[in-house]
Amino acid sequence: MAGDTVITIVGNLTADPELRTIPSGATVANFTIASTPRTYNRQTGQWEDGTALFLRCSAWDSTHTPLASNIGSSLAKGMRVIAQGRLTQRSYTANDGTNRTVTELRVDEIGPALSRNSARVTRNANDNGQPHGFTGAPRNQPQDTDPWGQPVGNGANYGNPDPEPDPEF
């Protein structure tokens, strides 16, 4: 979206994601990512932790992607994750009557940080039971209807025309 502030954060989940369904029927996952910068102190030869950033995050299921549900079933407290999304700000009235404003990350993509985790990925199926996107078809096997994929000499010489004779001078 034009004008959105898109950021990527790497950090650890502070608790298990909270999965809930709102009255409209939409599913949302809420969680917090703690990101702590580390710098190397050359004098002591040690890594030092900076001040941690705790960023509240939300992710929603949509008709095409079950992001919140996948987060709820895949991620847990303490896991190191990489999340990308849009910073959003919202205001609300707290139970004590005070007005408050929070900044949170509306997550578009998230996954385990493989530098410190290993993962086994299971693809989701679409409404017809077929996997989304790439289906793992073998490469370099042209389809019958693809003239560009036909071998040379099979009447389909589109990409390799016969060389033209040199002009006579």
From TrEMBL:
Name listed for the protein in its UniProt record: Single-stranded DNA-binding protein
Domain of life: Bacteria
InterPro entries: NA-bd_OB-fold, Primosome_PriB/ssb, ssDNA-bd
Region of interest called Disordered, as start-end residue ranges on this chain: 108-169
Cellular component terms per the entry's GO annotation: nucleoid
Subunit: Homotetramer.
A molecular-function term among this protein's GO annotations: single-stranded DNA binding
Keyword Flavoprotein: no
Organism listed in the record: Bifidobacterium callimiconis
Keywords: DNA-binding
GO biological process: DNA replication
SUPFAM superfamilies named among the record's database cross-references: Nucleic acid-binding proteins
